[in-house]
Design a protein that fits this description.
21 helices; homodimer; mainly alpha; 2 strands
Chain lengths: 480, 480
């Protein structure tokens, strides 16, 4: 482990964070909300610390696998610590643990909040809150592309093996170009949603905050009643559409924007994701029709919004789905584990992993009947690298294992059964609202400080897809 | 698929079932409980149908893989249909779906009941109910040994690779000898427990019924209040001990009985199983001390009983654990997924599978740091066959997948969230009582007929370890 290089890189990232902390400053001036000092001071503290690390630790630039893991994980921790400063310094959040919870929830695009009255915060602080989502969503993609190929796991490996085009064979020699292309798509979609939301009556500030939270599949709103506060069918449908788009592999968006619709449509994960979205919406519509909603149109609006919001792990709300029937609630709980597509900003286990797990099980059944036949799991017609398959199987086992253990810990902090399990499902999957006492009209304020730290760790594990974080606590990681 | 041979073998098994249906007959005469006619008629119907199949379909004896799966799965279905006859013909259970549910629950050693007043049934019918447990527990081991080596999955494969002694290298040439040895251990342990329970004040009938249900890790009692009805610390501890023993790999019992304690103790699964048992008991004791129980001795008695009862998937009760704290309840819910050791009569995912899943995840983490290193998952110092590992990973994915989907279906039948999930966990894991409306002091009577059939299928899937059943619905299974 080259600790000096790790700290130097973290320093560079903190300087970058300092810059982003100044973005809400002009809004603070405009609104005169009194948070300007907090923002500028936070930016200075972050940048000065960063500069100290960057210039204090000189080192070669030979980034090995190990430093990659350490930098990524620690960067997320540092961002959540320094990103929490505006909340604390502006007096918006009193307790440091709460502020770190909120910031980690932002960067990991979870959207779980400890705030009981969101609307009482300065507007510029709420913009910073939405911006953490956007940076986290974007950051994960950049990090995926920049870091994951060295890690040998997850999105990038899956991209390389299975997605044709700019992210596939020609990816390695120009990884930064790829990152820029995806970044461009992300900015473009955010701009389009902002405009569409303004056409629906939102002002620029609110449109921007909600577009940030949508494209990052985050879920933080500027309103206590989330998207439901606007009471507009048009806005609901715009957000539903862009949540869905944010849950799609962004390299497919690039294909589609280049006019290669057919190539994008050939992707099996996209079809499966669309199928789950339509299927889940249908079940919710059937469960709600006549029971919760009399009008089919209204039913479709709320059911589709909630299905997409939970499946993509965004977590926006337009209604209290805990008033829905048990089957609707259980379906939403299951969607929390699925998540978006690989290479999207969504969390959860991801559609592709579940698709490949299903196929792995099919292959096992096939082998029972034909023990001597060799059959590999395939994706979009291509055989999946067995090492990728092993990694997915390990990921699934760890995901379920962490869910089980963390749920027991949360129950030990005093939560009831449903709240304990759902608080973990909602943070590990980066969704936000769960069920029980952390449901769509509740928040996480009532959880103990220890419990909040456990959930903060769950958010980090979920967002960095477990391995990247867990490898740091693996004994041989620190050995020469 | 040789349908004729399959039906012929099923015929032979039904004749055998007819014989076992006569076992409770002398007890019926002794008690004069009026169920003699029902038992004899059931035996005749089973034996005549069996004879019709056996003599009606002549065929070679060349049992292929496919017939193996079909015979095993259909045998369990047929046993549950014909085994339900005494309940129906004696008027003990009115509805056929209820009777099949109860019988499948018996044979699969689940122990979930639809009876609201167990003590109102004729004693001989309750003995038959306990006997289905014993046959199922024993049957699974015999079936494991006789069928699984051809199937290439589960217990037998694990035995062959990891357990030294009579079940390992010399197993194949004399599989029936091995089955007889294990059967002998099973009978011996049942006899010892029966005697010990009689020393505690039970009569022969009750001691036999409870010993049957304990060694099979079943959980059916002759009393409405289960084992708690006897209110005896001595009986609680005897049952706790024998539940624990029933959850151990039976080939290790054989080693121990032959004096090879060290060999048995070297088995990593046994140590892990013991560790989980002690750890779970400790957590329950800590959660209950002062809160539910004032006396440590009393606390230990109830906590150990419940931990072992749920972990081994027996499901006996001595107290209403839904009155315990959320962390205790969540722990019990997690234990439902673990289950006993491979090669035991316990259900669930099994300790060995979870141990190997954990090691697989460890290997994946190791490979992140050392991408070029080759490292296999090991068990008791020996590398695990990668194909066995693939099968375990597939099993785990299917287990969680079936749990998720069946829970949603149960919620659709009108159960609340906790009851829906726990009814599936308790039947898929062959435990019996769950939480919510299927808790330790409740029963399954209130569930819809459709819901009962879904849970009946879950019991079958859990008991035959998924693959054996699922392969029958796999399209290529039926192709030439």
């Amino acid at each position: 482990m080259n600790i000096r290089l790790t700290l130097r890189l973290l320093g560079a990232l903190l300087i970058f964070l300092g810059g982003t902390l100044l973005v809400p400053a002009p809004f603070s001036l405009w609104f005169g909300d009194g948070a300007l000092g907090a923002l500028v001071l936070s930016a200075l503290l972050s940048a000065i610390t960063g500069a100290g690390l960057f210039f204090g630790f000189r080192s070669g630039n030979d980034l090995s696998l190990r430093e990659g893991f350490a930098v990524v994980t620690l960067a997320w921790v540092f961002f959540s610590l320094f990103g929490a400063l505006p909340f604390l310094l502006s007096g918006s959040i009193a307790h440091p643990v709460d502020a770190v919870f909120e910031t980690m929830s932002g960067f990991t695009t979870t959207g779980a909040t400890i705030l009981t009255d969101i609307e009482s915060l300065p507007q510029s602080i709420l913009l910073w809150r939405a911006l953490t989502h956007w940076l986290g969503g974007m950051g994960i993609i950049v990090l995926s592309l920049a870091i994951l190929p060295m890690l040998g796991i997850g999105g990038m490996q899956l991209f390389k093996a299975e997605v044709p085009g700019p992210t596939a064979d020609r990816l390695k020699p120009r990884i930064q170009d790829t990152a820029k292309l995806l970044w461009g798509v992300y900015v473009l979609l955010t701009m389009v949603e902002t405009l569409l939301l303004m056409l629906g009556g939102m002002n620029l500030y609110e449109a921007l905050c909600h577009a940030f939270a949508t494209l990052a599949t985050g879920g933080f709103s500027t309103r206590n009643a989330s998207v439901g506060a606007f009471g507009s069918g048009y806005i609901d449908w715009v957000v539903t559409l862009f949540m869905f788009l944010a849950g799609v592999n962004f390299s497919l968006h690039y294909h589609a924007l280049r006019g290669r619709w057919r190539d994008a449509w050939k992707n099996e994960e996209l079809r499966c994701y669309l199928g789950i979205t339509l299927g889940a919406t249908l079940v919710l519509v059937l469960a709600n029709q006549g029971r919760v909603y009399a009008s089919l149109f209204e039913n479709l609006r709320y059911s589709a919004f909630q299905a997409v919001s939970i499946l993509t792990t965004t977590g926006f709300g337009t209604t209290d789905f805990e008033q829905w029937s048990p089957v609707a609630q259980l379906l939403l709980a299951l969607l929390m584990f699925i998540g978006g597509c690989a290479g999207s900003t969504g969390g959860g286990i991801k559609v592709m992993r579940l698709l490949l797990l299903f196929r792995h099980a099919q292959v096992q059944l096939f082998r029972l009947i034909h023990p001597r036949a060799v059959r590999l799991v395939k994706f979009s017609g291509q055989p999946v690298n067995p090492e990728v398959m092993q990694s997915i199987l390990g990921f699934f086992a760890l995901y379920i294992g962490i869910f089980a253990i963390a749920s027991a810990i949360m129950a030990a902090t005093g939560l009831d059964l449903v709240s304990a399990a759902m608080s973990v499902a909602a943070t590990l999957g980066n969704i936000g609202p769960g069920l029980g006492s952390v449901g769509p009209v509740d928040n996480y304020a009532h959880i103990t400080a220890f419990g909040k730290l456990v959930l903060t760790l769950c958010m980090l594990l979920g967002r960095l897809e477990i391995f990247t974080v867990l490898v740091l606590v693996f004994p041989t990681f620190w050995r020469k």
